[in-house]
Amino acid sequence: MGKINYFDIIFPEECSVYHPGNIVNGHVRLELLEEIRVKGVWIQFWGRAYFKETDSSSSDTGSNFGAEDATETYYYFNMKLYETGSTIPDGLTQTDEEWQLDAGTHTFPFEFLLPNVPSSFRGNRGYVSHSAKAIIKRPGKSDFRLEKDFNVIKPLDLNTLPKANESVKNQIIKQPNIFCCRSGPVTAFLGVDKLGYSPGELIGLNVEISNHSEKEVLGSNVKLYMHVLYHGKLTQGTEVQTLSCVNHPSIPPGETDVWSGDTMLVPPLSPSNLEGCNVIDIKYFLVLHVKLEEPPFDLEVPLDIIIGSVPIKMKRTLAKT
């Protein structure tokens, strides 16, 4: 693109995230070093889900869809753009129109209404993407093309879920199999103060590990996981990603480790379930991992949680007068 100094799709800085029902607007910006002849400037908006079903070992989530890959399209818009302040020349149509763009800066504004669509998501084997593609068509020459994703979050209001504000807990007791030795159990407890969280919140970790065995507990940690389930035409696929981790040190025999004040920050995440998408489903859960010295012994305490986009509102208590 030797004649082009700059070519980009510009969204407003304040619109880092869009929600269904929002107006997606902005402009295509083009800076030319020399004049060029064009047949038109177009922009395409495309919302789609994709699961690479044909090759489970590949992490390529590009647009080269295979015949057996699972896809779902939510919208596709193709619109022709005109430069700010310009008018469509009389007597010309979209098929035969051709004009000259002089050297310098040109802007082509756009806007469209975002329909009711799932949140953006990208995994190792699939994605839900919302993208804009700008195309400068030139007579007798190859087109200039540029594609750019924009982020969409379909709101999940935790205040609408009846149990989102209830505490959840789980406890596992496991007896180590130590040969020729009498050994007590290892007891592990994991609890959190509510079921529903949103990105940016801190999860308060209530953990207690009692080591009544004859061996040392080498250490423990709590991890936040995302479980992704892909629904294909012929098969299903899964992946599990570790999102965050809090570690604790070893526990000698006969000792108890009670966590105090440990928290975990919820990173930016798509809401649970990926509502509106039939190709991908996502869930989140915590796991307390406890590892004993010998023999190989792993104790795991799982705990499901829900990630939403609207946090639970704190209930206000009226002071007595």
UniProtKB/TrEMBL annotation:
Protein species of origin: Octopus sinensis (East Asian common octopus)
Name of the gene encoding the protein in the UniProt record: LOC115209672
Family matches, as SUPFAM superfamilies: E set domains
BP term (GO), one: protein transport
Pfam assignment, any one: Arrestin_C
A Gene Ontology cellular-component term: cytoplasm
Protein's UniProt name: Arrestin domain-containing protein 3
Superkingdom, taxonomy of origin: Eukaryota
PANTHER family, alphabetized: ARRESTIN DOMAIN CONTAINING PROTEIN, ARRESTIN DOMAIN-CONTAINING PROTEIN 1
Family: Belongs to the arrestin family.
